[in-house]
Design brief:
Blueprint (H helix, E strand, L loop, with lengths): L2 E6 L5 H18 L15 E7 L2 E9 L8 E8 L8 H17 L4 E6 L3 H5 L4 E9 L2 E8 L1
Parallel strand pairs: 4-5
Antiparallel strand pairs: 1-2, 2-3, 3-4, 5-7, 6-7
């Protein structure tokens, strides 16, 4: 089980910010071989959900209130360290993110932009596809909603 904490951008320590940017870069840029602008100025408006195992950041998301990123509340930058995926931490960090949206934003409808290969994972969390597949940074995605 992960030790999960939620912080605003200003509450993040320098080490926490470094660790989350390193984890995102490790997975989204290096592992997925995708050159894109990860540092997008949206981090300052997000709540950051950090998942630790033995004091090492191994899972992360950022969440937004309705109207900032999408019309609905949203979860993005969902990431689990490659060498930790066998523990199913993706479910832990997503469930914590869904709960944080309820607690911090009083919202239950959530939209995500999901990588297509993770569609079943998000279906298991009660997200369903809306619309057609599209490319985002060269990677197939689909919009998904949880109500």
């Amino acid at each position: 089980m992960l030790d999960i904490t939620t912080k605003t951008f200003k509450e993040l320590t320098t080490d926490e910010l470094y660790d989350l940017l390193q984890l995102r870069s490790e997975v989204f840029v290096v592992e997925q071989d995708c050159v894109y602008q990860d540092i997008d100025r949206k981090d300052k408006k997000a709540l950051h959900i950090l998942g630790y195992n033995a004091e090492k950041l191994v899972a992360y998301t950022r969440i937004f209130k309705a109207g900032y990123y999408f019309e609905e509340a949203s979860i993005g930058r969902v990431v689990v360290a490659e060498n930790e995926r066998q523990h199913k931490y993706g479910y832990d960090i997503m469930n914590a993110s869904i709960e944080a949206i309820k607690n911090h934003y009083n919202e239950t409808t959530i939209r995500i932009s999901a990588q297509m290969y993770l569609k079943q994972f998000y279906n298991n969390l009660d997200f369903h596809e809306v619309g057609e597949e599209y490319l985002e940074d060269g990677i197939p995605h689909v919009a998904m909603i949880k109500t």
